[in-house]
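From the methods appendix. Each design record in this collection lists the tokenized structure first, followed by the designed amino acid sequence. Records were kept in a plain field format so they could be parsed without special tools. The example shown here is representative of the layout used throughout.

RECORD:
FOLD TOKENS (88 positions):
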């Protein structure tokens, strides 16, 4: 129900995606970055699907991008460790 003076609410997970992305980026930690990607994309798609109900699209997208950047920076390190371990 939307009465006079009421608009869309902020998505409840928008801030969570942003905070996880911010924490995951400097520490390059997959524990925070992968959930930031998943939650950020979920927020982005839900806000786009129901723009009259939710706001926070940009926060979800920012969390998604920062989590993705952290994951991209993290993957070469893991591959290098696997190669170094395999070659002895």
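DESIGN:
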């Amino acid at each position: 129900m939307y009465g006079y003076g009421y608009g869309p609410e902020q998505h409840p997970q928008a801030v969570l995606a942003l905070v996880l992305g911010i924490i995951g980026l400097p520490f390059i930690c997959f524990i925070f970055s992968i959930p930031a990607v998943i939650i950020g994309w979920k927020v982005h798609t839900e806000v786009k699907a129901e723009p009259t109900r939710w706001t926070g699209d940009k926060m979800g997208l920012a969390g998604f991008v920062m989590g993705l950047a952290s994951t991209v920076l993290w993957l070469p390190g893991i591959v290098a460790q696997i190669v170094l371990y395999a070659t002895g």
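APPENDIX NOTE: The mean pLDDT is 90.
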